Every structure is written in structure tokens, then in C-alpha cells.
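Morning F.,

Quick status update on the modeling queue. The single chain you submitted on Monday has been processed. Sequence for confirmation:
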Amino acid sequence: MRYVWMLSAVLMAAGSVVLVWLTVAPPLVVNDGAQVLSDSQRAVVARHHEELLTRHDIDYRFVTVRGVSDLDRFAYNEFKTLLAGLKSESGKGLLILFDADTSLFRLEVNKEVHDLYASDFVAQLDKRIMVPYLAAGRPDKGLVEISELVVARARTGPPRGARARFPDRRLPAPGGNPAETLIHHFAAMDGNKAGALRGIYTPETQAMLSEGAGKAVMRGETLLQSYRNCRVEAIKESPERALAVIRYPASQEHCAPWFFRKLDGRWVLDLTLSGTALRIKPGGGWRFDKSIDHPYGFAFDDWQFDDQGFPVK
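C-alpha cells below.
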């Protein structure tokens, strides 16, 4: 382990001053106290720290916690406690903080890198990265991608122009599991590029989107805002593992479930229930139209629904 050496003056009883060297262990670069990341993901974030420090002179810390009442104040204090910026010759410091209980994310920086990581960039990270990954139940992947984008911003330098362009993203290959497919759907709807991502939808869904018939499908800001505070309760698969549902707690009434089919070994999104069996109430809330049959009832065998089809909280 590498240590930080500090010179300290000690006043002796006889009045003389003796200079002594003290060794202080440096703070952890990656402190995943909430156990959100895997070992391999922690190693990736550690490599991000190394690149930021050696190539861009930015001293980076990554922390996950649970149950913090005031995350803004905690982030401010943690930044100082962890000595972010200590190893930077120009004093540049950066902290990524995530509360696993509340799913809230913060990026704390000092004035030396404020222009590089301005508030609009941080807001985009929260909205366009964390919201989809939390809606898919994968905060770990979202945090690693945010860490990657922080490094990417350091490579490209501060934004220019009235509106900064959000960096290009490297998404996981879709279809391996329902969560990965849902993340691609959010990205497609964010950029209105559903037609270019045929591989993530059922053929019926793709036809619906291509023909403009999917008016009930949420897009862009509406989608991101609707799932802003959605936290996955369960990912349910049918006994034959041909169908799956990502669902949220019944108390999160604005968080409608997502439906998937397995075609040719890949999970694809089925949006054909939107506006038919699945009804979204304006202003929030969803229900099943009990007059329309669908094959996804297995995912709600442990739930109760009222006479109108709304889940009982």
C-alpha cells in the first residue's frame, strides 16, 4: 500500500521542537460500502481513477452508501473527508456518490473542474443514464457508465457552444436479458430512433412503431419523467422462460410494467399491450383491461386488482 507522508512538528516537554514524519494511509479510491458493484466493476472504476489522475490530473473518488438523510451535505463533507484532489498537482477533485436505499446520485467537484463538469452535464447524467438503468433494475451498470462518461468528458475537454453535446454512449448488447433490452428502449425513445433498433422489439411492436400506430407508447422526456422515481421490485419469468415482466411496487402507481418475449434466444420488448390490455391513466396510474386477455398474468399471481383493474397497494 502506498502512503501519504506528512511532516509534523512536535513540541517536547523541554520546549524544543522535533520534526517527525507520520504515515497516513490514503483514502479508498473506490469505497463501495453499499455493495452495489461487482468486483470487476470496481476494477473498472479504479482504472477510470488511474486515467483521470495520470492523464488529466483529476483526483477521483467513488462512494456508495445507504440511508443518508441529506445527500447534498453528505457529498460535500465526504469530498473533504476523502481528500479528493489531494493527489492532483493542480488540486482537481471529483466525487461520485450513490445512495443505494434512495437511488439518488450526486457528482461533487471543486472549482478547479467545475467548468468541465457543469450542472447541465450532471443533470443529463442523472436523467439519461440513471433513470433508465434504475428503471431496469441495474444501478450498477448505470454508475459504471456514468464513470465512463466522466472520463470521456475529461478526454474531450470543456463543452463549447450554447448547448453541450452529450457524449456518445456504449450500451451493452441488447437481448441478453430483459434489463439490457429495456435500457436500449429508453435510449431509442430518448432519441426517437426506435426504427433503427429493430432487434429489441417483437415484430408486432416494430410494425406498430414503424406505422406510427404506437401513440400510447411514451417517448422522450415523457418517458424519462414518468419513470423518474421507479425502482424495480421484481423481474418475473414464465415457467417455460419464454416471457418476462419487469414490474415495480404497486405503491409506485405511475410505474407501469414492461413485457418481454424470448425470440431466437434473445429478449425483445412487447409494447403491444399499451393502449389495449394495459391502460395508462393521464396524470399517473395504470390498470389492466380485464376484458382483454394477455399471456403475462403469471407475473402478477401474487398481486390483487380492484374491479377496474388497478393494482391494490
